[in-house]
Amino acid sequence: MITAHTAEAVREAEEPLLAAGVPLMERASFALSTAIARELRAREQPVSGARVLLLVGGGNNGGDALHAGAYLARRGCAVRAALLAPEARVHPAGLSAARRAGVQVEQVAGEDGLVSLAASHPVWVDGLTGIGASGGLRSPLAEAVEALTDRAAELRRVGSPPLIVAVDVPSGIGVDDGSLPGPVLPADLTVTMGAVKAGLVLPPAAPLAGRIEVVDLGLELGEAEAMSLEEGDAAARWPVPGTADHKYTRGVLGVAAGSATYPGAAVLTVAGALATGPGMVRYLGAPSVSAAVLGAYPEVVAGSGRVQAWVLGPGVDPDDEIRLEELAEYRDAAAEAGVPVIFDAGGLSLLHEREVKAEGPTVITPHAGELAALLTARGNDVARAEVDAAPAAHARRAAQLTGAVVLLKGSATVIAAPDGPRYVQAEATGWLATAGAGDVLAGVLGTLATAAQSTAEAGHRRVTARELADVAALAVFVHGRAARRAAGLPPHALPAAAGGPAGHPLRAGDVAAALPAVIGELLG
Ligand SMILES: NC(=O)C1=CN([C@@H]2O[C@H](COP(=O)(O)OP(=O)(O)OC[C@H]3O[C@@H](n4cnc5c(N)ncnc54)[C@H](O)[C@@H]3O)[C@@H](O)[C@H]2O)[C@@H](O)CC1
Ligand SMILES: Nc1ncnc2c1ncn2[C@@H]1O[C@H](COP(=O)(O)OP(=O)(O)O)[C@@H](O)[C@H]1O
Ligand SMILES: [K+]
Predict the structure, then answer these.
(1) 397 C-alpha vs ligand 3 centroid, how far in Å?
(2) Ligand 1: which residue has its CA nearest to atom 44?
(3) Which of 111, 124, 383, 498 is deepest in the core (most CB within 10 A)?
(4) Any idea which positions bind (6S)-NADPHX (predicted)?
């Protein structure tokens, strides 16, 4: 599990160690220097003689960069430090360590000098600001970062990109919320001190961190601000049927999806559900859609009966009041029985009224546009772009307003429980951004929710919001992995922008088809 923390949590955890005289900065900066050397070797570039440019701001983040520069200079690198804050404000111990080690230090004024300095150094170390920064980078750092970002893009175009290493965080990101309040220099590698910061995993900042290495400082941290499931977590949480199970103990999923206009949404939801391994899927909808679903999947049982979870709404027309009334009936029955409900697409409109709160265990699965519509309908006027700029904050807001677990879809998908954990999962690929992919996800989530409900029923208790958030993260994890497989991408390949394979197009049905093999591989 990747656990990510706020700046305040990290500072609190550092305090007792600093008070006890533990040399955290020395440890952090030494580890930073070795990470840079390792990265150079991995790129088959010699460490000795490597030309390294330190971008130094006026806080301890700059101190880390200077100390690391001193270590690198001692290993034979040609290190230069560009001070972007007045020398009197630059970390004094770092500055003198760097000078003693032979680092050439110069005060930078204006972007032109900085850019030409950068052009002659293939390694840039971003030590402008770390967890002490607030708001977007201000002048002159903002202009410097903009100019360096442009230069890096030019160098990338001509095939000689610099190696950019961020100290602790790419300077200027929203450290706690992953926002981008101003310019940020995208890094290839972020060496982060003591703990992953939430902004390194939350969108939209996360992709700018590149690969993340954590320096272990022995910090004792409390509950995470954000978590990401990894392979081992997903495998450990997967509901594998036991020998005593039968289809009803494994769980029955009810699907009310599709319409005359969007019959395919029902087929794809069911495809995702079946590929995830339910005990049974019941379908409820118009006869023509039902015929399409059964034509594609004869395993499905049409008509009502007892279920352990519902998926309500994929492909449902939000203006079809009669259909929405049916969905509301399923919802009410589910609330009475304590059965989880997943509202997707058209079904989300059932939560548009301001005072409506989820009465039973509930997950909603909007994309940014749908979340903006939901928040706006409930009196929080929000545009899609605002959700995109701060997905985690908006997901949490919607969770608090509705009482539901919110699964906010996007290139990184954020999951927020009303007062519980927050997950972010980013294993998918841009190829997944295709019509119907969300329907498949709703089906996957539905099946996993039935399994969670079956376990809860066996223990004579109700499934909790926390468990539903866990299930949502698991669904997004395998859906993302299945998308990678369907796009011909190995699970751990670098993004195409970082030199990894591009993959190939997929259609939503391919994601469902890839699921059993992905799950099998996960479970070994
Ligand atoms: N406390 C410690 O001993 C440790 C600190 N560490 C490092 O120290 C960093 C935190 O250091 P600080 O608390 O000094 O803070 P930072 O170095 O992160 O930032 C403070 C500096 O940035 C400037 N600044 C703040 N907001 C700005 C903005 N919006 N635009 C432009 N400039 C801005 C401030 O004027 C100040 O000069 C961590 O990120 C980490 O790199 C590590 O060495 C681990 C140990
Ligand atoms: N750029 C992207 N990279 C990776 N995954 C993405 C990206 N954009 C969207 N996705 C994923 O693709 C799916 C699209 O779902 P959705 O928007 O609901 O489509 P539909 O309603 O057509 O089924 C979601 O799982 C979402 O997280
Ligand atoms: K930094």
Answers:
(1) 29
(2) 25
(3) 124
(4) 60-64, 130-136, 168, 265, 315, 367, 439
Asked if residue 218 belongs to a known ligand binding site, the reply is: no
Pair of tokens at residue 377: 């309908």
Domains of the chain: which residue ranges? 2-228, 247-487
Task: State pLDDT tens for residues 224-272.
Answer: 999 999 999 999 999 999 999 999 999 999 999 999 999 999 999 999 9
Q: Which of 432, 439, 440, 485 to mutate to test the pocket of ligand 2 (most atoms within 8 A of CB)?
A: 432
Residue 411 Cα distances to 183, 203, 348, 514, angstroms? 21, 8, 21, 19
* Shortest-distance ligand to the CA of residue 413: 2
In 3D space, the residue among 340, 269, 276 whose CA is nearest the CA of residue 284 turns out to be 269
CB-defined site of ligand 1, < 6 Å: 14, 18, 24-25, 28, 57-62, 64, 85, 129-138, 141, 167-168, 193
**Distances in whole angstroms, Cα of residue 200 to Cα of each of 31, 142, 285, 429, 461:** 19, 20, 43, 18, 37
Q: In 3D, which of 470, 16, 504, 436 has the Cα closest to residue 238? A: 470
CA-proximal residue: ligand 1, atom 4 (nearest): 25
Asked whether the predicted pLDDT for residue 149 surpasses 90, the reply is yes
Q: Does domain 247-487 have CATH number 3.40.1190.20?
A: yes
Whether the complex's predicted ipTM is more than 0.85 is answered with yes
181 neighbors 145 (Cβ within 8 angstroms)? no
The pair phi, psi for residue 169, each rounded to 5°, is: -150, 155
Q: Does the 2-228 domain belong in CATH 3.40.50.10260?
A: yes
Task: Give the per-residue pLDDT at 158.
Answer: 94
Shortest-distance Cα residue to atom 19 of ligand 2: 438
pLDDT digits (tens, 9 = 90+) for 452-475: 999 999 999 999 999 999 999 999
Amino acid at 483: A
Q: Is 367 flagged in the annotation as binding? A: yes
pLDDT of residue 175 exceeding 90: yes
Judge whether 126 is annotated as a binding position.
yes
Residue of 411, 485, 506 with the most ligand 2 atoms within 8 Å of its CB, for mutation: 411
> What letter represents residue 339's amino acid?
V
Take residue 464 and report the two structure tokens written for it.
């909790």
For residue 104, give the 3-state DSSP assignment: strand
Residue-wise pLDDT tens digits, 427-440: 999 999 999 999 99
Distance, in Å, from the CA atom of 273 to the CA atom of 255, rounded to the nearest integer, reads 9
Coil, helix or strand for 383?
A: coil
Q: Give first-to-last CA distance, the chain, whole Å.
A: 18
Residue nearest to atom 7 of ligand 2 (CA): 411
